[in-house]
Design a protein that fits this description.
heterodimer; A: mainly alpha; 10 helices; B: 277 residues; alpha/beta; six-stranded mixed beta sheet
Chain lengths: 216, 277
């Protein structure tokens, strides 16, 4: 799938083609620009200066196309979110995170890079700065305000129930930085969960219906 | 020892995982209870932290006595009042063994604590995932007579309240965090426990919504004949006062003599049958 005109970078397309060729994926090129333009025209409250809301429309439009392909071809959608961005809530709800399986969601960004290197992905892709490509010049580390090498160490400590004071001492970082990461992680929990439902009856969807993922 | 005194049932909603805000709320209500003439003020189960805190509980739990109980000791000393509230407790001996505890603090300071014995782990409850159960009932000799502490799901097991009563408690305090889908059970069980033990029973439940769970409130003080002496509103924060009058127990015990008629040998059968279940 091609990004729409505004955020399209020929380098990204070339990288996608390299990976597809390496692993034998079939590709098809879709330009979602007309769909987006039509959306912008049809929404009475559309405001082009609200970058975030507009960016979310892009992420969700990509999702619509992916699920259309999955339906038509009887495929499932494979997510590419990693643990660093998922913990930080650095994704669009129902957008880039929407998938049926998410094989690398339990690996931090720095681990994903090591894994990619190990399986032979070219260095120019492995080392390339992450970007959601929702607008030109958008880079993950700029927006998060921290390098993944530092962020992942903080998240690793939080995952292991360490207190922010302990993490600060071990990483020789200022405590307020760790507190900010922790706050961001906790504040985004709603984005990682089944919808909030009211407990009204015996067993409740998303709360205490405890079944296999595929019971049949 | 006082034979007749007023108690306050402080049915509050809590801010999840915010001890400072909950302590501020508790402190204000303790002062209000004192102004209105209460000798004892009771807050719900885990009212220091809120009930639904999941993995954050490891960071929120404290030793007892510890920082939060120390703060509350200052409050009870200043107000010359007894206080009961619930909080997650970290064991003195390990770093990740937690108890769901009830704390009793008096006008002179810390008196005692109780570890919840029955930890619900079904439906939406996941208490055994986090807490180690208690093994002892808790009865404390105070200026307000013998006070017994139990917590929420304990009330489904009549032996907990019975043992607390047999150890001398005449006022049994059940702090709770019960969601609305279970209201009908608690409304019957609280009354039953008071009647069968001919004791005063103060039930103080959480109010408000946490993660889609509506805690139903409905706190009540029940007399030894099973009469509901005072009851708080359903679902929302409320504050009600009721009178404990121990001489009432003597008059009802002659009429409903369950303790006189108790058959100790049945408990041996009960133990055997329970082991074979």
């Amino acid at each position: 799938m091609l990004f729409e005109k505004e955020a399209r970078r020929t380098e990204d397309i070339r990288h996608a083609e390299i990976v597809a060729k390496e692993f034998g994926f079939k590709t098809e090129t879709v330009d979602i620009t007309p769909t987006l333009e039509s959306f912008y025209r049809s929404a009475p409250i559309f405001d082009p200066t609200d970058k975030l809301s507009k960016g979310n429309v892009k992420a969700r439009t990509r999702m619509i196309y992916l699920y259309y392909y999955a339906n038509r071809l009887h495929f499932i959608v494979c997510g590419s979110s990693d643990k660093s961005e998922t913990m930080m809530g650095y994704f669009t709800k129902w957008g880039d995170v929407a998938a049926d399986i998410s094989p690398i969601m339990d690996l931090y960004k720095t681990q994903v890079r090591k894994l990619a290197q190990y399986i032979g992905i070219p260095a120019e892709i492995v080392e390339k700065p992450s970007s959601p490509a929702l607008w030109p010049g958008q880079f993950a580390e700029n927006e998060l305000g921290i390098k993944y090498e530092q962020l992942d160490l903080i998240l690793f400590g939080l995952e292991r129930f360490m207190r922010t004071e302990e993490i600060a001492v071990q990483l020789r970082m200022e405590k307020h930085l760790i507190d900010e990461v922790k706050h961001r992680w906790l504040a985004a929990e709603h984005k990682r969960r089944m919808l909030l439902t009211a407990k009204l009856e015996y067993r409740t969807v998303g709360a205490d219906f405890r079944l296999q993922r595929n019971p049949l | 020892m006082k034979e007749v005194f007023n108690i306050a049932l402080a049915q509050i909603s809590c801010k999840q995982a915010d001890k400072a805000e909950n302590l501020t709320k508790i402190r204000k209500i303790v002062a209000k209870a004192k102004r209105q003439g209460a000798e004892l003020v009771i807050f719900p189960e885990l009212s220091l932290t809120g009930y639904v805190v999941r993995d954050e509980i490891y960071e929120l739990a404290e030793r007892i006595p510890g920082p939060s109980t120390k703060t509350m000791e200052e409050v009870t000393k200043k107000n010359q009042i007894h206080l009961i509230f619930g909080m997650p407790e970290i064991s003195d001996k390990t770093e990740a063994t937690l108890h769901n505890s009830a704390v009793l603090i008096g006008p002179e300071g810390f008196i005692g604590k109780y570890h919840k014995m029955y930890l619900p782990t079904h439906s939406i409850f996941e208490e055994k995932r986090y807490f180690r159960p208690g093994y002892q009932t808790a009865v404390f000799d105070t200026e307000l007579g013998k006070l017994g502490l139990i917590i929420c799901y304990d009330i489904y097991f009549p032996e907990v309240t019975r043992l607390t009563r047999l150890k001398g408690a005449e006022l049994i305090v059940c702090i709770s965090a019960s969601p609305g889908v279970r209201r009908s059970f608690f409304e019957v069980l609280t009354v039953a426990r008071a009647i069968e033990n001919t004791a005063f029973l103060a039930f103080v439940n959480l109010a408000g919504i946490q993660d889609g769970l509506q805690f139903w409130g409905g706190s009540r003080l029940i007399g030894p004949s099973g009469r509901i002496l005072v009851q708080a509103k359903y679902d929302e924060d409320d504050f009600v006062m009721g009178e404990v009058n121990y001489p009432d127990i003597r008059s009802i015990e002659a009429f409903v003599p369950t303790l006189k008629d108790l058959r100790p040998e049945l408990f041996d059968h009960l133990k055997k049958s329970a082991e074979e279940l």
